[in-house]
Every structure is written in structure tokens, then in C-alpha cells.
Design goal:
- It contains eight helices and six strands; from the N terminus they run βαβαβααβααββαα.
- The protein has 218 residues and is an alpha/beta fold.
- It has one domain: Rossmann fold (3-Layer(aba) Sandwich).
- A six-stranded parallel sheet has the order 3-2-1-4-5-6, with helices on both faces.
- Helix 2 packs antiparallel against helix 8 and helix 4 packs parallel to helix 6.
Length: 218
């Protein structure tokens, strides 16, 4: 019988962009995941809330718009509803209680995985999930080597090479401030929300909720 595999993809998603979507789809295909659950962050545990530009609800709606049309992608607002900072190790057990799955994977960038020792209880987290380190072509996996002697569950870190897409949320926000187009950098539904609500236009707006967890893929 085939094992049920579920992925979790967390991030600030400020905003979610095509780089996120490509990673999620390529990891899903490579690891044969039945679903990928996107988890937009609420109150950030490791950075100033004011560094996140869109409200938690705006970011949630952008993620919902991004996953529309992909039957393998869903969204969970667990961290937004928590009303407090949530670390990945706290979020994962809640998601596992809500959804049936036999193998669980947490998807993030390899650069974030290289900082795993700064996360809350990384070994306990690796007992709960398999950590997917999404890498770009040519990424030197030796950059993760320092983790091996310090994590008893190091073998539960799995690299997956994904197409290189040089898009970042920071670049998108900067282009918006400069009055430049971000079309084709974000899914169409996300673009419409940003345009309709005037997000990222330098109006001084600050958020009520912030980023995901230790994960830095914003």
C-alpha cells in the first residue's frame, strides 16, 4: 500500500510569488506528495513585525489566490489564528492532527536549513517531519555539512534540486516602491490583490501579524 505523504510549506509570503509556487510543485512531484499545505505566518518569533509589509489577512488571501486551480495545494491559517508567535516545532503537530498523513515533509530553502541550529528544538522537529532543503542547481551541499555532528536526526534532511528562479519578495516590494511592474513575477490572482488594495506602495502601512517561523522564505 502506498504511503500517504503530505508537505508543509511555510513562509511570510509577503507576497507569495512564482518562485514559491515552482518550489512547491517540483518538490511535490519529486517526492510524490499527495498535498502541499501552505502556512502563511502570523506573528514572527524572530524578527520585527514591522518588517512585514502586508497584513496577515492580506497575505493569507494572496496565498489562497495563488493555490487556486491546483488540486494538490491547500492553505491553513493555523499560525494567523494563533494570535501569538509560532515556531515550526509548535505548528507541525497541530497540522498533523488536522490532516491524515503517514509521512510529513517540511519544505524550505537550503539556506534556511543551513541555519537549522537556530530553530527551536530542531531535533524534535526532525522527529516530526522530514526536512526538505530546496536547492538551486549547482548548490554545494557541503553547506549543510556542519549540521551532521550536531543533529542526531541529520539523516532526515533531504535535498531536492529545484529550478532556479531569481524572484524574491524583497525584490517585488522594492519594484512596487519604485513604481515598476511585477506582472509575471506573481500569480495572476496575487497580482490583482496587490493592485486592487495598493499593497507595497510605500504608504506607511504596517501589519497586525507577521512571518511564519524560523523559515526565512519571505
Amino acid at each position: 500500500m502506498r504511503v500517504s505523504r503530505i508537505g508543509i510549506f511555510g513562509g511570510t509570503f509577503d507576497p507569495i510569488h512564482l518562485g514559491h509556487m515552482i518550489i512547491a510543485e517540483q518538490v511535490r512531484e519529486e517526492l510524490r506528495l499527495e498535498r502541499v499545505i501552505f502556512v502563511p505566518g502570523g506573528i514572527p518569533p524572530h524578527k520585527e513585525a514591522s518588517s512585514v509589509r502586508a497584513t496577515a489577512e492580506d497575505r493569507l488571501e494572496m496565498v489562497e489566490a495563488a493555490v487556486t486551480g491546483n488540486e494538490h495545494f491547500t492553505v491553513d491559517r493555523v499560525e494567523i489564528d494563533a494570535g501569538r508567535p509560532m515556531h515550526t516545532v509548535d505548528t507541525v503537530p497541530i497540522l498533523k492532527e488536522r490532516s491524515a498523513g503517514e509521512e510529513w515533509f517540511f519544505i524550505t530553502g537550503a539556506d534556511e536549513v543551513s541555519n537549522l541550529l537556530t530553530w527551536k528544538e530542531p531535533d524534535r522537529l526532525l522527529e516530526e517531519i522530514i526536512m526538505v532543503a530546496a536547492t538551486r542547481p549547482g548548490y554545494d551541499l557541503a553547506a549543510l555539512g556542519h549540521l551532521e555532528p550536531r543533529l542526531r536526526n541529520f539523516d532526515r534532511i533531504v535535498p531536492v534540486e529545484c529550478s532556479r528562479v531569481d524572484i524574491s519578495a524583497t525584490t517585488i516590494r522594492r519594484r512596487m516602491l519604485q513604481g515598476k511592474s511585477i506582472r509575471y513575477m506573481v500569480p495572476d490572482g496575487v497580482y490583482e490583490i496587490i493592485e486592487d488594495r495598493g499593497l507595497y506602495e510605500g504608504d506607511g502601512r504596517r501589519i497586525e501579524g507577521g512571518s511564519l517561523t524560523e523559515e526565512k522564505t519571505s
